[in-house]
Amino acid sequence: MKSLAFLLLQITLLCAPALAATKPHVLLILADDLGYGDLRCYNEQSKVPTPNIDRLAQEGLKFTDAHSAATVCTPSRYSLMTGQMAFRVPNGGTVFQGAGGPSLIAPGRLTLPGMLRQQGYATAATGKWHVGLTFRDKAGEPIHSGRLEDIRRIDFSRRIEGGPLDHGFQHFFGTACCPTTDWLYAFIDGDHIPVPPTGPIDKSKLPKHPYANDCRPGFIAPDFPMKEVDLIFLKKSREFMAEHMRTSPDQPFYLYHATQAVHLPSFAAPEFQNKTHAGPHGDFIGELDFIVGELMKELEKLGIADKTLVLLSSDNGPETTSVVHMRADHGHDGARPWRGMKRDAWEGGHRVPLIVRWPGHVKSGSTTDQLACLTDVMATLAAIIGAALPRDAAEDSFNLLPVLEGTSTAPARPYLLMQAFAGQRTLSIRRGTWKYIDHRGSGGNNYTSAELKRFALPESAPQAAGQLYDLSSDPGETTNLYFKHPEIAAELKALLDKSKAAGRSVETKLP
């Protein structure tokens, strides 16, 4: 028996490098508030050059019908991290600020990085977390508030709970919420803030333009450069990859790089200012493109570009302020060609870029109109590495591997759920070309406001309880067919309600 055990051990050790070689490194770049129309490879009328992202699309697969799971930051990131729609969990419509929390991810829930770690991956996250965590005060009491005054109460000597290190990541460098927006301007390294804030931010020294007004008063650490946050994130990601390949070249890694760009305020680093001829926000998009290019250069430098699965997407559609001013000032439309923006249930709020590069598996220069959601990353990566997902995980995640490899033209997704700004009160569903919105209006922005009223469309069925659109003939969602096709509206609502009751999209179908 001992000799048999010894033989099995030897076989395992011999096979380990081969098994590792079959698992790609994974780099997931998640931009913030990047619109479908912000990129040249999605919108030929974009006024911002994006050569590095365009090259990524030329070398990989471009999805034209991909969606964030929600139309705002926190629930969208939760859904990416867990493969579960955020509306299914308590406070799943929350957008955290400051010291807000606790984490939306329940203790013990299997996450995307947790699954990969179980399969032998080294896992690291850089940038914006924004899924909630727990700071404590000096008495040890938890602080779960986005209020400015609660930043003063944080005991920075205590461990931060519920952050990336508690949900599958081994390394983290980033921020609790939106890096240059939300009250607490300080870097988290692992599960601590090594250099805490020392005083209030001096906003008089920051740029002043229409895209600069999202920077809230708050407390700032002396090592937190408001205009160079993304370059620091880039440096940390490059250092992680280089160190990992130096010390553990046979182990696959998963790196989640979550940028500040292009969330307002648009504070491009000095070397990118006035470079795109599309204003401060255009320069910020240009900086994002540079970051993508530098991450790809690092993969090439390390000799692993062809062994790495790279994904690029966005957490939701473009911010209202950037859309309004970019349209007026530069003839650039970050939401083009869709109706709506960030927060809205209409396509502009959640249809996002999704580009996948994986040499040898994904055909370069290819495009797909397959329906996809960021929740699908978890099931897709599980299929790639041969991981079995338990039934109580990734409830809204579908395997897109056949789409990536071009081995199937059948729909990978039978339908798609979407969550607008108000969570469970603003849900919608897509099946085929039909889209049913289970509420009136945008579900997010106020189109009677002075800023947005010029973009309001006349309601074609103002008495309808919901909205029904055929995106094949009406991609702009201009004509509500709720009363013209009541049977389709009723069928889609029934499927939406059934999926809500079942607690999952996967395996939930109409009778």
Describe the 3D structure:
The chain is 26% helix and 15% strand. The protein has eleven helices and 20 strands. The chain has helices spanning 2-22, 51-58, 73-82, 112-118, 148-151, 229-247, 279-301, 320-330, 376-385, 401-405, 486-502; strands at 25-31, 61-63, 66-67, 122-128, 135-136, 142-143, 171-175, 184-185, 188-189, 199-200, 219-220, 253-258, 308-314, 354-357, 366-368, 372-373, 416-419, 427-431, 434-437, 467-470. Helix 6 runs parallel beside helix 7 (279-301). The chain is globular and about 60 Å long. Residues 1-21 have low confidence and may be disordered.
For the record, the CATH architecture of the largest domain stands as 3-Layer(aba) Sandwich
The major β-sheet equals: 9 strands, mixed
* The top level CATH class name of the largest domain: Alpha Beta
Shape: globular
Strand content bin: 5-15%
Q: How many DSSP H or I helices? A: 11
Strand order within the widest beta sheet: 9-7-4-12-1-13-14-2-15
- Uncertain runs are 1-21
CATH superfamily of the largest domain: Alkaline Phosphatase, subunit A
What would you call the quaternary organization?
single chain
What are the salient characteristics of this protein?
4-stranded antiparallel beta sheet; alpha/beta; Alkaline Phosphatase, subunit A; globular; disordered N terminus; 11 helices; 26% helix; 9-stranded mixed beta sheet; 511 residues; 2 domains; Arylsulfatase, C-terminal domain
